[in-house]
Design goal:
Keywords: Signal. This protein is mainly α. About 55% of the residues lie in helices and about 0% in strands. It has a domain of about 200 residues: Ferritin, core subunit, four-helix bundle (Ferritin, Up-down Bundle), CATH 1.20.1260. It has eleven helices and no strands. The chain binds 2-acetamido-2-deoxy-beta-D-glucopyranose (7 copies). The site of one 2-acetamido-2-deoxy-beta-D-glucopyranose has 4 residues, from loops.
């Protein structure tokens, strides 16, 4: 090993000496640049881009508050009080009883969401934080609806790391499919650049959560007789029912015909038959996060509905 390293490093040094004069000439002649190639459509952010990206702000507020509170026991009002823009504080958010590994992961997720809000503010501006219901009771209701009966005792996401990560399974995935859905509709190059960057991190978060749950797939979630894998399947099925647009969401273990290339039961990532991420429209997302199956009827995480032109438009009674 050392011999190989020594040989390769002396080769490298000889190579560098040979090349250096020529390289320096080339670099100074061309000036390295880090700017992207100028895009063919010369619009940074279009008016419709603003609406689409602002819609995502609703989800980013939800994620930021859930992760900040869960990991640290306080939220945006303390961490970045300018970002909520005067919107009301979330209801029922609390510090979760997390082990160190989970708390470290969730702390990072939390600050990533704060960064996302700042990036969205710089590109499209923020509206006030909508009222968010992050109470144990709201999560308990979602898990009851997913299970098809009332869990006893009620599901409490703040109880322990496993329950918190199961509750987290409910959230970044909606951001992911929402960004995939918004992508083909964006026009401006700044909008597209931001969306790709946000999508990358949202899907990374979803992957971390799903891998964590996959490692524990067969474990029963105490004190229930339901395994981690069953919970993920039930939550995914609930979201498919609420959104009403077919299967766009799958648990961490699936029948092979729903796995990658129709072959795997392991479903660490949720994707279509080409293993391409599913996409959802704002209306589909609202039906799920309102928990009402109706984008005109607020509830669930957003007792008074989302903010911004798209969500407000669905709430506007004079439109239907
Ligand atoms: C490289 O950058 C320098 C300093 O900005 C500038 O004077 C020079 O013209 C540039 N050269 C090329 C080839 O663009
Ligand atoms: C949004 O960004 C602007 C700068 O473009 C800044 O002045 C403003 O304070 C930011 N707003 C929030 C809520 O962070
Ligand atoms: C968890 O982290 C805290 C503070 O960083 C430390 O005091 C404690 O020993 C850690 N616990 C475990 C089980 O590693
Ligand atoms: C939060 O959700 C719980 C469970 O659905 C509900 O009982 C409570 O009234 C909600 N809070 C608000 C302010 O909507
Ligand atoms: C799990 O518990 C529920 C409620 O107590 C019960 O209806 C169900 O049959 C149980 N399922 C299994 C697999 O034991
Ligand atoms: C997988 O199944 C779907 C239908 O469920 C089908 O459309 C698709 O062609 C199949 N893909 C492969 C690689 O067999
Ligand atoms: C609701 O729709 C009416 C008619 O289109 C419009 O005048 C009003 O500004 C809308 N309100 C909101 C909050 O979007």
């Amino acid at each position: 090993m050392m011999a190989i390293l020594a040989t390769s490093s002396s080769f490298l040094i000889a190579f560098m000496i040979l090349m250096s004069s020529e390289l320096i000439l080339q670099i100074s002649a061309t000036n390295l640049t880090c700017d992207p190639i100028y895009p063919p459509i010369k619009v940074p952010v279009s008016a419709t881009d603003v609406e689409l990206l602002q819609f995502a702000v609703n989800l980013e507020f939800l994620e930021a508050e859930f992760f900040l509170w869960g990991a640290l026991g306080y939220g945006l009002d303390k961490v970045a009080p300018e970002l909520p823009n005067g919107g009301p504080s979330p209801i029922g958010a609390q510090k979760a009883n997390l082990d160190n590994l989970t708390r470290n992961i969730v702390t990072m997720f939390a600050y990533e969401e704060v960064g996302h809000l700042r990036a969205l503010n710089l590109t499209v501006g923020l509206f006030p934080r909508p009222l968010l219901n992050l109470s144990s009771a709201n999560f308990a209701k979602i898990f009851d609806e997913a299970s098809g009966y009332s869990l006893v005792p009620p599901f409490d996401p703040y109880d322990d790391s496993l329950k918190y990560l199961l509750a987290s399974y409910v959230i970044p995935y909606m951001g992911l499919v929402g960004y995939v859905g918004a992508n083909p509709l964006l026009i401006g190059y700044d909008s597209k650049a931001l969306l790709a960057g946000l999508l990358g991190v949202e899907s990374g978060q979803d992957a971390v959560i799903r891998t964590y749950l996959f490692e524990r797939a067969e474990e029963e979630v105490a004190p229930y007789n339901i395994t981690v894998a069953e919970f993920t399947t039930r939550i995914s099925e609930l979201r498919n029912r609420l959104a009403g647009c077919g299967i766009k969401d799958k648990g961490i273990i699936v029948p092979p015909q729903l796995g990658a290339e129709n072959r795997t039961e392991t479903n660490v990532l949720s994707a279509n038959s080409y293993s391409v991420s599913y996409s959802r429209t704002p209306a589909e997302i609202l039906r799920v996060v309102y928990g009402t199956g109706n984008e005109h009827t607020p509830g669930g995480f957003y007792p008074q509905g989302g903010n911004g032109k798209i969500a407000k438009g669905y709430l506007n009674k004079s439109h239907y």
